[in-house]
Design a protein that fits this description.
Blueprint: H1 27-58, H2 64-76, H3 81-88, H4 92-104, E1 108-113, E2 116-124, H5 126-147, H6 152-171
Antiparallel strand pairs: 1-2
């Protein structure tokens, strides 16, 4: 076996694992997994570049992770800071700093939780909603440009396979 196993996204330069007698399907499984890992690394890298570009459309100093928080708030609706931090798997102080930045831009507000007056819910402001609608429309246009040549069967298969992969990560708590 190779001693330098890939460790995650962006590690596409790592050598492919060597196949051995203990590999269930032999070389073809290892080769297929290596190809998927490589393509996922490229996709993640490009996804980060797109997120950076989209976050800059919201504000020139915005970090892509703050853009991600806006996307979650738009999709989830009002949510507590602790729930938001748990949802993305980072600490509360990290999310708090980003939320403070977003509140300063007028994109996010904190309001009392009607079910527990001691707690606060985060949500997009009307300006935040309008901004995210504009930016997410631009993101969808990027997808249309990239995937417009695919037929709907191919797109459906891609969505199903990505959903299957995502469900494996969800099962593992990621």
């Amino acid at each position: 076996m190779s001693t330098a196993a890939p460790t995650g996204p962006g590690d596409e330069g790592a050598p492919a694992p060597e196949s051995g007698a203990d590999t269930p399907a032999g070389d073809s499984l290892d080769e297929a997994i290596h190809a998927v890992e490589h393509q996922m690394s490229l996709l993640w890298r490009r996804g980060r570049a797109v997120s950076l570009r989209l976050s800059r459309q919201v504000h020139p100093d915005m970090d892509p992770s703050a853009y991600g928080l806006l996307s979650i708030l738009r999709r989830q609706g009002p949510i507590r800071l602790t729930e938001l931090a748990a949802l993305i798997g980072v600490g509360k102080p990290t999310v708090s700093r980003q939320i403070t930045f977003l509140m300063g831009l007028g994109l996010v507000s904190k309001d009392a939780d009607p079910l527990d007056g001691r707690a606060q819910l985060l949500q997009l402001t009307p300006e935040g909603e309008a901004t995210m609608a504009r930016v997410q429309d631009a993101r969808r246009e990027i997808f249309r440009q990239r995937l417009g040549e695919w037929d709907t069967t191919e797109l459906g298969a891609l969505a199903a396979n990505l959903g299957k992969l995502n469900s494996l990560y969800e099962r593992d708590g990621l």
